[in-house]
Amino acid sequence: MTEPLFREDAYLRACDALVTAIEGDGVVLDRTVFYAQGGGQPGDRGTMTLADGTAVPVVDTVYAPDRTGIVHRLAPGAPLPAPGERVALALDWPVREARMKVHTALHLLSVVLPYPVTGGSIGEGEGRLDFDIPEAGLDRAAIEAALNELAARDAAVSFRWITDAELDANPGLVKTMSVKPPRGSGRVRLVEIAGIDLQPCGGTHVRRTGETGRLSVTAIEKKGKQNRRVRIALA
């Protein structure tokens, strides 16, 4: 099992860890600051420094098939550490920080457009959500203005845990139709934007909405009879 340090503190940039297994070109550790791909957010990348001082690139981070371990995929041809070896991890912080800002901004977008979310993705400075909206005619300027008004409130972003049973009793918390909160551990992580939003989410976020800076709605696309894709970007 890998302890996901990023889940408790998204601002941790580095940590030491113990190699517990090798999975092909990937390394499983006992703990990590690297976010594992999921929920539309890509896996983190950065560097892993081996016990002999060799720094090797981590090009992606994913969950192992059983979802208890987190696999750090190394660049092709990179030397692999041995199980039991101590290594040091360091995030590509500018990339992670941009994704954190976008992820928080997409939560705000889901408030501006209170429709079921059918999909989404988070990039490095841009992202999108797909909405199940029966009528067309979305006003890009109005959406952008409302989005920036929420961001400018500089509301605190925090998280807490609830049980699976509590989530079952409050199904309205789940906005996404295509991605359901992970089950099995008996608890679900909620991300709260004070006075604005509350929903299940395992991703990384900034501490306050003001950290996103000014946001732009770059495109609104029709993806089927009722599906509308709204793209945003950091200034």
Which strand order spans the largest sheet, edge to edge or round the barrel? Answer: 2-3-7-6-5-8
Query: Structural class of the helices, strands and pairings?
Result: alpha+beta
Alpha carbon gap, first and last residue: 38 Å
Number of strands: 15
Explain the overall architecture:
- Strand 5 (46-49) and strand 6 form a beta hairpin.
- Helices cover 18% and strands 38% of the residues.
- It contains 4 helices and 15 strands.
- The protein is globular.
- A 6-stranded antiparallel β-barrel has the order 2-3-7-6-5-8. A 4-stranded antiparallel beta sheet has the order 9-10-15-14, covered by helices on one side. A 3-stranded antiparallel beta sheet has the order 11-12-13.
- It has helices spanning 5-8, 93-112, 140-152, 164-169; strands spanning 3-4, 14-23, 26-29, 31-32, 46-49, 55-63, 70-74, 86-91, 117-122, 126-132, 157-163, 187-193, 197-200, 215-222, 227-234.
